[in-house]
Design a protein that fits this description.
This protein has one domain. Helix content is about 45%, strand content about 20%. The chain contains 5 helices and 4 strands. A 4-stranded antiparallel β-sheet has the order 3-1-2-4. Helix 1 runs parallel beside helix 3. The longest helix has 24 residues. The radius of gyration is 19 Å and the shape is flat.
């Protein structure tokens, strides 16, 4: 079972009326949608157990970085009781999923990108990119990783209330 085939997947679900995205790993012989809370599978990759866990680690770190940055910029991102908030759009989650699955196929690129992602946890890569501190492939990957962190939701417009007529 150490490196048996597993499905790494991205699905949507609902629990007690609350919608969420969910990324996880399941045995290849299990139907992902057998989980009573999962509704639709949007991405599914059959890969080895260790690979699935490595990729899931990177995806979760990428998503946590994104949510923390949104929170630091005072965007309200709901925290569902399970999974990832529907406030994060599906196309962004698919891009994150696809990037990390694809980059894992090249071990040198994977190690570089994972290192950059860990740096991105602490600081934005934008200044490193602009300052020419990164060269070659590192710069190319840093730009791609930074792009996976650039989402900003549409701000809620707070309409100005009309003053009462009698004041």
């Amino acid at each position: 079972m150490e490196n048996s085939a597993q499905y790494l997947f991205l699905a949507s679900g609902v629990k007690k009326g609350e919608g969420f995205w969910f990324m996880g790993v399941k045995n290849c012989d299990e139907n992902i949608l057998e989980d009573k809370y999962l509704l639709d599978c949007h991405r599914k990759e059959l890969i080895g157990n260790k690979s699935a866990k490595d990729i899931l680690f990177a995806i979760n770190l990428n998503i946590n970085n994104l949510i923390n940055e949104l929170s630091n910029k005072n965007y309200l991102v709901k925290r569902p009781s399970i999974g990832i908030s529907f406030d994060i759009p599906l196309d962004l989650l698919e891009s994150i999923f696809d990037f990390w699955v694809d980059i894992y196929k090249n071990q040198e690129a994977w190690e570089t990108c994972l290192g950059l992602l860990k740096v991105r946890k602490r600081i934005s890569l934008t200044n490193l990119i602009k300052s020419e501190s990164l060269k070659g492939n590192s710069k190319k990957w840093a730009i791609k990783i930074e792009n996976l962190h650039t989402y900003a939701p549409n701000p809620l417009k707070i309409e100005k209330l009309n003053e009462p007529m009698w004041t």
